[in-house]
Protein 1
Amino acid sequence: MGQDGGFLAEEIDTSRPHPARIYDYLLGGKDNYEVDRRAGDELAAAAPEVRIGVRANRDFMRRAVRHVVGSGVRQILDIGTGLPTSPNVHETAHALAPDVRVAYVDNDPIVNTHAGALLGGSGTTSTVLADLRDPRAVIDHPDVRRTIDFDRPVALFLVAIVHFLTDAEEPERIVATLRDALPVGSFLVLSHATSDFADRRDAEAVYNQATATLNLRSKPEVMRFFDGFEVVEPGLVQVPFWRPDAPSPEGSDAIGIYGGVARKSG
């Protein structure tokens, strides 16, 4: 890290594809490298629905933001935020309630740099370089604590991130650690890739050379991440079908991403 808190170019690994940059490429963004574009093209060849899937996932995220803000929550902790794509979480939230506080967390220095530049000196939003694999470090990070008051309800966003945790990394324990830090009235917003609708082992293989592997899970396996929460209607469903506000795009039935929103009760 440079003395000004920025990151040196050599600290950003461009030798291997990174999930956030692959995602950015599939969304039509420009914050990616040739290695990411090549992986994205391989992924689209292995799973033809992936491009409409990532857009449907972003749309799910925005609808979920509107739901939690509409339910009265004024704090959002977004872990694995990825590269900024407008309208992002804070923009969607602030359109409804300008006082919503958002902490973005990602483990990629380039994501942190881009997000910090986008947000500037916003007092209600912060960007934090930290890793979901160490949930206590995320919760206790001073910049997270500066933005988020864990004595008041928080909406925890784990959108398209938990599937990059291997079973050996104990994703259920990680999510439970985060859950236990949240007070009653908080929400979990989670989406997760699956092969329930098609064999996607070839898609998983694309990530074998990336900075994180893709770990597809079944609906019952994804549901376990909601333990300790009450899932709101319509439950855990393919992301285009979670409270849609427009007709679902053609091919939505094949999208292998589950999404759900749940509330922590007493």
Protein 2
Amino acid sequence: MQIIRFAELKAEPWRNGGGVTREIARQGSENGGFDWWVSIADAAKAGDFSAFPGMERVLTVIEGELLLLSVDGAEQPLEKYRPYRFDGGAATAAKLPTGDIRDLNVITRAGAFKGFTSIVELSRKRAHPVFEGQFGVLLQGQAKVSQGGGEPVELGRYDAVAGSDVDSPEILGRGFLAVVSIDPVETPA
């Protein structure tokens, strides 16, 4: 079972100085870039986003109240726990009308992978499995993860669990979990 502890992730400063990003996971590509990337970012000031041409983004505010995003000139208010999909190459800028925010980013190579983020409420009675190609990120509350009847392991806030189809890890508790899915795009033969 793979647990990615948020407290152990290195904070990388943004090029524009407006915040930091902590990488949860990434898959590289042959050209030295990446095919997909999952991260948590802290935005401390308004400004332009880095462009990722040929990529698709799903951004979810996970702490703070509101992020006002401008994507190719169209304003989009993003409220907490409401994932928003947009073109990674679009001219994108953010305003923070209610203060600093933290967001969950899923960036995938268009045509090769499709990223999804779902927010689920955890239960103490029914465990939530995390399958291959998924990450479960504890957003708030208290939860434990177990695999194959093994001893449950406590999760901290923003800890991530990598999924598996062989004896999938299961998360049980109270609170909210982001389930990030990275699905390969099927190309017609």
Protein 3
Amino acid sequence: MPKNRNSFSSLALRRRGLASRAVHRVWAWVQETGAVTAQHPGRLRFRRIGTGTRLAFPQGTVFGEPWIELGDHCIIGEQVTLTAGLMPDLDLGSETVLTLGDGVVLGRGSHVIADTSVSIGSDTYCGPYVYITSTNHSYDDPHEPVGKQWPRMEPVEIGPGCWIGTGAVILPGARLGRNVVVAAGAVVRGEVPDHAVVAGAPARVVRSWDPEKGWQPPLRTPAPVPIPDGVTPEQLAAVALLLEDAADGA
């Protein structure tokens, strides 16, 4: 290949690299600027948005904010839908319709649809694409299209400390206790007791905690090694950087 062609290819690669870095810098600025917080709510006017809570940009569909309360230090991922009421601009009365406790995490692409009361307890973590709804289609009339029949609504209550796996669906009327684990892809309805693991569609209890016997059936994995006493967050962050560098060099 002629020397000038090599020089041209090298210049094109450098320009492409510069353009790529510029695009990433601009997108990072857009994400930071477009995030919603208590200090920078943008167009969204929630009944309450707690200290340290952040809705990542881009947001999903959000309406009925005057009837939505978000606790402190919640993490709302990109493209998460939060709605109160069947449609925008309805008067839903004086009571809060959708409540997120402190420290709730909603993964990317999740939906929380609160046409009637939905509450998610503190420190509940949801993986991506979780669907929580207080409304379901009815199909009583066989002659009428399902989408035109009036839906059924039942309150949903999710206790504190739960983990809801990727793609799980929480249906109207569901009541989850404390520290419940919902397996990925599970479809949950009805009542789930404290400290239970549910899986399947429809979901059923596959493991539960007994105060005398422990987990039944017993766990098949060893308990995680706890972080040693005295380790600071800064030290953990430094270890994470070392692991990232090692992975990049592998």
Protein 4
Amino acid sequence: MEILTLVALLLVGAYILKSRDQRQRIALLGSHLGQYQIEKLMESLTQGYLRCLGEDDPERRQQIWSLLDTTEEKLSSQFDSFAAGFARLPEADTRVSKLPIAIPYAYKLFPSATFDLREALNIHARGIAGVMKNASNRPAKSKAFTMSAELFLMQHTCHWFCKSKTVASARMLARHQTSYEQLLDAVSPETRRAYGTLTGQKV
């Protein structure tokens, strides 16, 4: 009976520590994201892509693509600024555990099994900017598809930092019917290679 009580106390303590750690991470990320309109611009883009793909009038469709190009530029610019600001934080606050489940302060207990969110955000910033500039001349639909993947992978990374990889992947599947592996396949090759190297994900 004493063993069961001890186990229960340990579980409760671990839950309290995990919740505290996650609240701190959410507050930290939110304090930086709150300075920008990144989430609003992401929503405008994804909705605009759907509108454009459903538009039958070629002239009207081209007008929408042009408006979306402007939105992409704004989003890329704001994300660059966000990543640059976040990069000024100390490394101790930006480590992300690679473990599949949330363990309280795992990034401190197992530092070798972590990656730096600052580096991940820089990878996302380059990926978003690269697709926006479209140096590889992707057709409009292909560009929209790749940009959506870049944005969703960035969103996955943020959820991973705040919670865990498992929770981030489950949220992505529930909200966008897209698995983590599908996201990695859909982003630009440059993002896939850099992100895979940073996180230890096989690509």
